[in-house]
Amino acid sequence: MPSANNTSNSSNIKSNNNITYVQQSVGSRLLVILDPSTENLAPGLTGGDVIRFDISLNGYTRASANSISDSEVFGVVEKRNSSGSLNVVTYGCIDLPSNKILDITGFNYGGNDIYFLSADNPGYIQNLPPSQIGQVIKPVYQVAPSTNSTGTVVNYVGYVIQEWTWLLIIIILR
After folding, report:
1. Which 8-state DSSP code applies to residue 167?
2. What is the pLDDT of residues 90-130, one digit of tens each?
3. What is the pTM (predicted TM-score) of this model?
């Protein structure tokens, strides 16, 4: 889902991409297979990468919470196939490799069950939301272990951290 409606990037599937799989069962999900022979893919994309479609590159690259346009998540790469294609979960159950999950130390807001797009490490998710003004708080993954998955790609709408937000909190706490 887009984080904002004032950006030229889009999280929509390209109109020429007709390889979309909808799986329904316990652990339902939307899965898109991106083929490098028909799609521009950033070098080195692998399982666990959170990706976005970049209009200027006309292809897929790692998403980052450092700006509105860079946080437009398309999905999460579940794995790279032997053919070089990518299995991308756009919504629903995923078997997420743990090497793309960052454990940020600090106040624990929710028990490490919701993970957010990282602003400092493109393509990664982290247990705490970004905290700098101008960064985007974008929930992407929820832990929900089952037989075939570690959790769920949720891809909620993100929110830009504004200076007035912190001022409002300070006023309320007084």
Report:
1. H
2. 999 998 888 888 877 665 555 678 999 999 999 999 988 88
3. 0.78
